[in-house]
Amino acid sequence: MKVVTTKEELARELAKLEGTRSLVMTMGALHEGHLSLVERATAETDHTIVSIFVNPLQFGPGEDYEAYPRTLDADVALLEPAGVDVVFAPEVEEMYPREPLVRINPGPVATVLEGKTRPTHFAGVLQIVHKVMNLVRPQLAYFGQKDAQQLALIRTMVADLDMNLEIRAVPIKREESGLAMSSRNSYLSQAEREDALALSRALADGKAAADASGAAGEVLAAARESIEGANVRVDYLVLVDPETFQELEAGAHGAGLLAVAAYVGPTRLIDNMEVSIA
Ligand code: PAF
């Protein structure tokens, strides 16, 4: 496995690879969730490239850009036995030698939920995803369903800009407790980890209501009742259309996505669960 930090070195390594290639983009601080993306990528293509880059453009003022965990040596040690061919871990100056002037406008889906609280987030995500896809030119790229809105926007960018690759989604990895794996879980104290379980519990309670043939209104009510009184500050807990991310009406039918964002102490966590409303 080669670890490279410049676009030039990356191009040199890519030129040596024959066959299909996949891309797994990360911000590092790798956990089992990331490794499940890598596992799919290495199984389904001849070569896998993993990028590790804490992208300043996707953090807003006052967010955790400076504090975001940077654990390159540990990340490389996890990727080495996983069958990865190349790790691309550039510095900020390599990716953004100057403030980019041409920007990707992610459109209306980026204005709700995550985009409402973090208005510049998805434009920053799509900017780096587009750049790294251009550099790596993979046939397949893998993204986690935990960032469901991000995944939907990346799919839309790939379709709307005729980018020549396929996006594959990988299910959320959860700890035994139900907590969705996230690099930001490392910010949580033991007590906060307990508090954080309120998120996945609310989603599971909403899903149980859907599985018991509850109407959309009942599904949402079950999830909201579940999280009421928990030691978290809810940003949103909604039942949305999984493509448009618009909230579903109380009488809606079909596929829905229960999505939650909440602050556990100062840490903002997100989670989601697919539900089917009869
Ligand atoms: O999901 C993430 O970790 C990031 O948003 C991504 C896709 C690596 C872009 O920086």
From TrEMBL:
Other facts: The reaction proceeds by a bi uni uni bi ping pong mechanism.
Catalytic activity: (R)-pantoate + beta-alanine + ATP = (R)-pantothenate + AMP + diphosphate + H(+)
Subunit note: Homodimer.
UniProt GO MF annotations: pantoate-beta-alanine ligase activity
Gene name in the database record: panC
Active site residues per record: H34 (proton donor)
Keywords: ATP-binding, Cytoplasm, Ligase, Nucleotide-binding, Pantothenate biosynthesis
Similarity-based family: Belongs to the pantothenate synthetase family.
Organism of derivation: Arcanobacterium wilhelmae
Cellular compartment(s): Cytoplasm
Enzyme class, UniProt record, top EC level: ligase
Residues where ATP binds: 27-34, 144-147, 181-184
Pfam families attached to this UniProt entry: Pantoate_ligase
InterPro entries: Cyt_trans-like, Pantoate_ligase, Pantoate_ligase_C, Rossmann-like_a/b/a_fold
Protein name (record): Pantothenate synthetase
Pathway membership: Cofactor biosynthesis; (R)-pantothenate biosynthesis; (R)-pantothenate from (R)-pantoate and beta-alanine: step 1/1
Residues annotated for beta-alanine binding in this entry: Q58
This protein's record includes keyword Flavoprotein: no
Entry EC number(s): 6.3.2.1
Function: Catalyzes the condensation of pantoate with beta-alanine in an ATP-dependent reaction via a pantoyl-adenylate intermediate.
Binding site for (R)-pantoate: Q58, Q150
